[in-house]
Amino acid sequence: MIGVLVVTHGDFSESIIKSMELIFGHHDKLEALTLNHGDDVRELLRKVREKSKELDDGDGVIVLVDLLGGSPCNVTASCLREENIQCVTGLNLPMLINVLENRTETSLNSLPEVAMEGGKNGIVNMKELIS
Q1: Chain-centroid distance, C-alpha 77
Q2: Residue 11: how many CB atoms within 10 A of its CB?
Q3: Can you state the angle between helices 93-102 and 111-121, rounded to 10 degrees?
Q4: Beta-bridge mates of residue 3
Q5: Residues in CB range of 121: below 8 A, 6 or more apart
Q6: If DSSP states are collapsed to H, E and C, what string results for 58-105?
Q7: Which residues are paired to 8 by β-bridges?
Q8: Are 90 and 73 a contacting pair, CB within 8 Å?
Q9: What is the CA radius of gyration of the chain?
Q10: Phi and psi dihedrals of 20, rounded to 5?
């Protein structure tokens, strides 16, 4: 099973996992890392590498981050040379749910597209939808 690591600014990563669990219950091979004010990004890099190795049972790990160009994204990008890691930015709840629902039957190389599709499909102008 592909591992999922959620890395964000502040407690967003922990909170989005709690929100997902409220709806769908607990999921294995899912972890959160946070970057708070004053944290050392080198320590975050160490944690991303460590958690990625823990989560990888041979199928790889997808890392979901909140913001393109932010420290969680940049730290994760420096790990992408390792062949069993993928990263997608722009984390939202539909993205996380789509990844978790599809990670057992989707390859690591295809999972970023699944993540992006779920994230984009979860963004809807409700006024237009109901009109």
Answers
A1: 13
A2: 12
A3: 140
A4: 61
A5: 94, 98
A6: CCCEEEEECCCCCHHHHHHHCCCCCCCEEEECCCCHHHHHHHHHHCCC
A7: 34
A8: no
A9: 14
A10: -60, -45
Task: Extract the tokens encoding 12.
Answer: 């967003």
> What are the tokens at 7?
């890395």
The β-bridge relationship of strands 3-9 and 30-35 is parallel
Structure tokens at 72: 């969680």
| 3 state DSSP class of 9 | strand
Copy the structure tokens of residue 45. 């890099």
75 to each of 14, 27, 121, how far by Cα in Å?
A: 18, 25, 27
Bridge partners of 9, per DSSP, are: 35
Contacts of 68 (CB under 8 A, 6+ apart): 89, 90
Domains present along the chain, CATH in parentheses: 3-130 (3.40.50.510)
CA distance 73 to 67: 7
C-alpha of 10 from chain center: 14
pLDDT computed for residue 97 by the predictor? 99
Token pair for residue 97?
A: 């749910």
pLDDT averaged per 10 residues in sequence order, the chain, 131 residues: 99 99 98 98 98 97 99 97 94 99 98 99 97 94
